[in-house]
Design brief:
Helices cover 38% and strands 22% of the residues. Bound molecules: adenosine-5'-triphosphate and magnesium ion (MG).
């Protein structure tokens, strides 16, 4: 039994505060901030440049934005506008994940002008977290918030995969994106697109 604990970690280890294993979960956190800020469109771009040994993640929203003072304060884990608890960890944890892997974190925002979060990583760095299941992050966002437009673009090694729910919605007409058959077709197409890209 102890061998298993050593190999797999203690039960519940993933739930420890501050322990986000995969970049796809950081991305979900940051996109949830966008949704909480009233965004109608969220754009997520990932670029993996193998030659430059760089990975870049960018999340852009058209939500309410933040003023200059707030932009400075949000990187402090003890700052949150949530009333349910006193710490906000989404942004500081992603910034820390960048710092740990020789990358840079950049937050640009202005009231009424939306927010851009850009995180870069040294792709081969031993402490660079794996991307994890980005397909599930996308499906969670699409099915949970079908009214919000989601754009996703992933570039890797000359290859490219993208998805724009605004275009899909225009084709579907009145049928909501979270209809089970549509959601499962979307899921299949996302996973096949990502698979072809080698993600
Ligand atoms: N995209 C955004 N648009 C507007 N405000 C934002 C955005 N992202 C973050 N904020 C503000 O920054 C605060 C801190 O965000 P952060 O993700 O670090 O913590 P949190 O969302 O409060 O809590 P947690 O992510 O741990 O659940 C948020 O409470 C919110 O007020
Ligand atoms: Mg958050």
């Amino acid at each position: 039994m102890w061998d298993d604990f050593t190999r797999w970690g203690f039960p519940g280890a993933d739930e420890r505060v501050g322990f986000v294993q995969d970049l796809s979960l950081h991305i979900l956190d940051i996109a949830e901030n966008s949704l909480a800020a009233g965004a109608r469109r969220v754009e997520i771009r990932i670029e993996e440049d193998l030659q430059a040994d760089r990975m870049t993640i960018e999340i852009v929203d058209d939500g309410c934005g933040m003023d200059e003072e707030m932009v400075k304060r949000v990187l402090d884990p003890f700052f949150t506008t949530k009333t349910t608890r006193r710490v906000g960890l989404g942004l500081p944890l992603l910034a820390e994940a960048c710092r740990m892997s020789n990358g840079k974190f950049c937050l640009q925002s202005c009231p009424g002008g939306g927010t851009t979060v850009r995180a870069t990583f040294q792709r081969s760095h031993i402490d660079r977290k794996p991307l994890g299941n980005i397909g599930d992050t996308l499906i969670t966002l699409i099915v949970g918030h079908p009214e919000v437009d989601l754009f996703y673009e992933h570039r890797k090694d000359g290859g490219h995969f993208s998805l724009d729910t605004r275009e899909i919605k225009a084709e579907l007409g009145d049928v909501p994106l979270n209809t089970p058959q549509i959601a499962s077709a979307l899921r299949a197409s996302i996973f096949s697109g990502l698979g072809e890209l080698g993600v």
